[in-house]
Specification:
Blueprint (H helix, E strand, L loop, with lengths): L12 E4 L20 E2 L2 E2 H11 L4 E6 L3 H10 L6 E6 L5 H10 L7 E5 L2 E4 L2 H9 L5 E8 L7 E5 L2 E6 L9 E10 L1 H5 L9 H5 L8 E4 L4 E4 L3 H12 L9
Parallel strand pairs: 1-4, 1-6, 4-5, 8-12
Antiparallel strand pairs: 2-3, 6-11, 7-13, 8-11, 9-10, 9-11, 10-12
Length: 248
């Protein structure tokens, strides 16, 4: 692995996986969403394979609902060189509160943050280079989708986010959306109020001023796994060979 491809070697990654996954409980009822099988493997393993491509070594796994199931899984998981640190919230904190809590276990600056209900294909080294070349406290990896009616939208211009727009079921046109992957400075994480249930995108990111958050959008694709229909579509896409990483 060359130096560029190993760009995450000194950066902690937080995977936000503590939610109940209420929307997909009808298809996955016996385990937390992060362990749901798609394409023959748990979502978590697809994520870890992607991170290993870029040299990731330390993963902080933010857990809540069915945390014991994840801990049991990790105990049996083969050693692949990754240090995986479970951090368990005692009450639901939302994605924003969970990041603040998990941030206490992180030592790097910046910190890579990933939502636990999407699979993403993007150049993380490219995103990191863009983050380092700006003065933004947060950078969001954004995907350009053909039909954005299922997602909140973001307006992107010159690698900055100008505005956030809530999900609009009537919006069937192309738009940029958050792919659920972020780079946060340690200071930005520490500014999140402690011990409060907060949404990362609604309560924290969407409240920032225009142009204060960076956006990386070069050749980004993602699979959403948050609803029964998107879960089924992701499963079929992976079975057909999407997101095949090769050897890691």
């Amino acid at each position: 692995m060359d130096e560029q491809q190993g760009c995450l070697a000194g950066i902690d990654t937080v995977i936000l996986a503590g939610g109940k996954g209420t929307r997909i409980r009808s298809v996955v009822s016996d385990r937390p969403k992060i362990l749901a099988p798609v394409g023959g493997r748990p979502i978590l393993e697809w994520m870890l394979d992607w991170l290993k491509i870029y040299g990731a070594r330390r993963i902080v796994l933010s857990l809540g609902f069915m945390a014991d199931k994840v801990e049991e899984y990790l105990d049996k998981r083969a050693d692949d060189g990754l240090e995986i640190v479970p951090v368990i919230e005692t009450s639901p904190l939302g994605t924003g509160g969970a990041l603040r809590f998990a941030g206490n276990a992180c030592g790097s600056d910046p910190v890579l943050v990933i939502n636990g209900d999407t699979l993403v294909d993007a150049d993380l080294c490219g995103a990191l280079d863009l983050y380092k070349g700006t003065s933004v406290p947060v950078l969001i990896v954004c995907a350009n989708v053909d039909d954005a009616h299922r997602f909140g939208r973001v307006e992107v211009e010159k690698a900055r986010i100008l505005s956030f727009h809530e999900k609009d079921p009537t919006w069937d046109k192309p738009a940029f959306v958050s792919a659920g992957v972020y780079l946060f400075s340690r200071a930005a994480i520490q500014e999140i109020p402690e011990n409060q249930a907060l949404s990362l995108e609604i309560d924290i990111l969407a409240s920032t001023g225009p142009g204060t958050i960076g956006a990386y959008s070069k050749d980004v694709t993602f699979l959403d796994i948050g609803t029964p229909s998107s879960f089924s579509m992701a499963h079929k896409a992976l079975e057909k060979g999407a997101f095949q990483r090769g050897d890691t």
